[in-house]
Design goal:
Elements: E1 12-16, E2 19-22, H1 32-64, H2 70-79, H3 82-102, H4 105-145
Antiparallel strand pairs: 1-2
Helix pairs in contact: 2-4, 3-4
Amino acid sequence: MTNGNGNGCRRDLVLGEGERLSGRDAPSRKSPEQLGVYLGTLLILAFVWRSINVQNESTAEIEHSVRPPFNAEYLLYLLLPSEEREVLIGDLIEEYSEVLVRFDKRRADIWFYKQVVGSLLPLLRRQILRMGALVWLGRILRRLIS
């Protein structure tokens, strides 16, 4: 497209309400207030577009990375009894996905590690008591046999 002289590009800008800017020096024909409104609208639209893209990217990442940190999950797997293992780990994974939706992956991982570390002391104490009970039972059996 050319302008009236045939030697350049023609630019048409639509501002709204039927107003149209056209020609090589179109922006200089409108007042600075109108251009400010136009640029402000463009900035808002660009921000909204970027926000939508970021949300779509983050939901795609969430769908692919719903699993919590492997090492933390494995610690729970080792320390929990088999009858409690699936239920407890399943509940933590479900809550992990909710935290992941609300926050990012790094914060969700930190939350999961916090839950595991908070569970370690009671689980270790239970394992030690279980071993202590076995040792105590072994001592009693040894005394009965001798």
